[in-house]
Amino acid sequence: MSKKLPIYFSDQAWSSLQHLMGDNGKPSPTINALLEQQDISDAFLHSNLNVQAIKRNSHIQLPVALERIPAGPAFANKDVFEKALDLNDYLVINPLATFIAHVDSESLLHAGFEINDTFLVDRSLEAKHGDIVVALIDNREITLKRLMISAKMSKDEIADIFGDANKVLPEMWLKAENPAYEHIIPEDSQTISIQGVVTFNLKQLYKRL
């Protein structure tokens, strides 16, 4: 039987290890995600999207209003709330496959994504036509765009985007939601790998001083 040898850490290394292990002494989802998702591309992790793993180590119950709030005329304040909602459960479906990233361009401006907006990416979801996705181009360039599946598009939709209903398109391509940016239509030699589906855009409306 092999003999177990003691392992010694410097004060700095031990402090870092305690931080990673979390309050309950178990590896946090942050560490699990990095260990179990080894197929994450280096381009994705080191892109300007400032990718961060999810760490669910807190629970805050927020009250939910019973009625929808209209954006039109004012309504009577009934001050009645439904059961509490935990944002961890609401925002994150699969913690080990979910990452936080930040918008780095205005290519999806008309879809509501502004520079520095924070958004969630779930790598366990199957990307579908029309989804906002994080895509890897030729294994080196990361981009945030709308996934378009050509077979799912009507002639009118193609004509509206390109001005030609008979335009020949590849099986899938990436649509920009800003006329100042070009769509990404891959050539035969190019590859597109979907790195994850954007599930939420956590836009900050109140700017702290």
From TrEMBL:
Gene3D superfamilies xref list: Umud Fragment, subunit A
Domain of life of the organism encoding this protein: Bacteria
Entry-linked CDD domains: S24_LexA-like (cd06529)
Species the sequence originates in: Acinetobacter cumulans
UniProt-recorded name of the protein: LexA family transcriptional regulator
Pfam families noted in UniProt: Peptidase_S24
Domain Peptidase S24/S26A/S26B/S26C: 67-149
